[in-house]
Write a structure and sequence with these properties.
- This protein has a single domain, classed as P-loop containing nucleotide triphosphate hydrolases (Rossmann fold, 3-Layer(aba) Sandwich).
- The chain is 26% helix and 19% strand.
- The protein has 6 helices and 8 strands.
- The structure holds zinc ion.
- The site of zinc ion has 7 residues, from loops.
């Protein structure tokens, strides 16, 4: 059923810096069937190589559609999310490196988007550098986890999951083992440094 396939999803994409996250994230935006995308970035991330073809906007009020990078230096995260919730439809919402805002718990501004994303028609992609930074409560709303290499010690975090995070533990061990087989100098040409596991939660 086509309508089933086209339901907006929530994807959590976790990988350390320099592990191919931006490249895949850009492909996810470029190839998405939704015509619109707001890619929220801050600081040096705004000028991410992988996203250099996207216009950077500093004023969300003048946004007229299409796929753009939103410079978080000009619009506060929480205000941005309120506007997204009120006005943004049929689009990808990508939040890059949000550990600063969504760490111990889901913010009051992101929460309604996660809960209603299908009704709103918002595909949500959340980017983190490590599993440690993701609030446990967030996993309830996530359909798919893409797990790349991370260098954070997340064992204690896994113990907070009902099943002690077994699927994550297995995936993380596999990713690490394959990652560590790479002997390339920068950049990696064998691809093992960018290896990822996909964990389906719903
Ligand atoms: Zn390599």
């Amino acid at each position: 059923m086509a309508s089933q396939e086209r339901q907006a999803q929530v994807t959590l994409f976790i990988a350390a810096k320099k592990h191919g996250k931006s490249t895949l994230a850009e492909l996810m935006v470029r190839n998405h069937y939704y015509p619109n995308a707001l890619i929220y970035k801050e600081g040096v991330n705004v000028y991410d190589e992988a996203f250099k073809k996207y216009p950077v906007i500093e004023d969300i009020y003048s946004y007229k559609g299409g796929k753009v990078v939103v410079n978080g230096g000009f619009i506060r995260y929480k205000n941005f999310l309120k506007l997204v919730n009120d006005k943004f439809r049929n689009g990808v919402l990508m939040l890059d490196d949000i550990a600063e805002y969504e760490r111990n718990d889901i913010s009051g501004e992101l929460w309604p988007i996660l809960v209603n994303n299908r009704k709103l028609g918002i595909e949500v992609v959340l980017l983190y550098q490590g599993l440690t930074d993701v609030p446990i409560r967030m996993f309830k709303y996530v359909n798919t986890v893409i797990l790349g290499y991370t260098n954070d010690g997340f064992e204690y975090k896994l113990n907070k999951f009902p099943d002690r995070g077994e699927p994550f533990r297995i995936a993380a061990e596999k990713v690490k083992a394959i990652h560590n087989q790479c002997t390339c100098k920068d950049p990696c040409r064998c691809g093992k440094r960018y290896y990822r596991e996909i964990i389906k939660l719903s």
